[in-house]
Automatic annotation (TrEMBL):
It is an enzyme of class 3 (hydrolase). Belongs to the Ntn-hydrolase family. Keywords: Autocatalytic cleavage, Hydrolase, Protease. GO terms for biological process: L-asparagine catabolic process via L-aspartate; proteolysis. This is Isoaspartyl peptidase/L-asparaginase. It catalyses: L-asparagine + H2O = L-aspartate + NH4(+); Cleavage of a beta-linked Asp residue from the N-terminus of a polypeptide. One of its GO terms (molecular function) is beta-aspartyl-peptidase activity. Its EC number is 3.4.19.5, 3.5.1.1.
């Protein structure tokens, strides 16, 4: 039930962003709308009452405390848990508007016991996200430090510009080079969506306006 609700949340967010484009909005407005919609949508939250999961009154739950104890060492937490079994809880979106402009948006879920002042990949242009009207737009998720070290989003578009299998090659390089896991959604400048991951899979969907009177929504996962 939780998985179905999460997938529905992804679909609804994509449709919300698509609605902005249908009304003449920019690609930037569309990706912002999609990410904000998903973050605020109760069907996408892991503790939504209406799908039968009680809301925790105390944020320090027994399960969270257990995870915290296992991850007091930040490096151990990343190696043993973040890159294997934890969901990254990022939300990302990419869009192409009627003027040919592309845009990306990326939120972040953070990492347990991170150092004070740590900045992940999400706010760094070229790492957590990148957009170029000549090649496309990318939004990434995964281990922030690994993504930062290879400037993953820009690397993906660089590979696209070279005619290579962009996302897959870039993510494999990141996994081999810095041993990190991650995923990415990619939109080419011709509105062709792509996705790839190195590690746990990610939920994604796409909305395409085939003609002025018809929309096409595809659940990619």
């Amino acid at each position: 039930m939780l998985a179905e609700a999460s997938v529905a949340g992804v679909k609804n967010a994509a449709q919300a962003g698509n609605a902005v484009l249908k009304n003449g909005g920019s690609a930037t407005d569309a990706v912002e709308k999609a990410v904000r919609y998903f973050e605020d949508d109760p069907t996408s939250q892991h503790v939504a009452e209406h799908i039968g999961i009680p809301v925790a009154n105390d944020l320090v739950t027994e399960l969270e405390h257990k995870d915290w104890e296992q991850c007091k060492s930040y490096p151990d937490g990343v190696k043993k848990f973040f890159n294997t079994q934890w969901g990254h809880e990022n939300t990302g979106a990419v869009a192409l508007d009627s003027l040919g402009n592309v845009a990306c948006a990326t939120s972040t879920g953070g990492i347990r016991n991170k150092m004070v002042g740590r900045v992940g990949d999400s706010p760094i242009i070229g790492s957590g996200g990148y957009a170029d009207n000549r090649s496309g737009a990318v939004s990434c998720t995964g281990h922030g430090e690994s993504i930062l070290k290879v400037t993953l989003a820009r690397l993906i578009l660089f590979h696209r510009e070279q005619g290579k299998s962009a996302a897959t090659a870039s993510l494999q390089y990141m996994g081999e080079r810095v041993k990190g896991c991650g995923g990415a959604i990619v939109l080419s400048s011709t509105a062709s969506p792509h996705h790839a991951w190195f590690g746990p899979q990610l939920k994604r969907t796409s909305c395409t306006r085939l003609n002025p009177k018809e929309d096409f929504t595809e659940m990619l996962k």
